[in-house]
Design a protein that fits this description.
mainly alpha, 3 helices
Amino acid sequence: MSLQIKIVLISFIVSVMTALFVLPILKKFKIGQIEREYGPRSHLIKQGTPTMGGIIIGITLAIVTAFLYNENKELLPLVIIIIGFGAVRVCR
């Protein structure tokens, strides 16, 4: 099995498992989408949907990179930059 297929499969599995743990936490703290009342009525269904998928992507990226670090060491600076940009976005 090629390295790219391994990365995709591991990333998918890790992101699904991470989502199973992160989404209930986001719902508990009521971190979700807010719909305006004067918009379309059909959009009110989305009220409260967690919108922090970037957190799941960042966690998945860190876990998969740590897991495959021995096979491809050039990824580490890129991952640090991506997670840094994500942290700036979350903290603002």
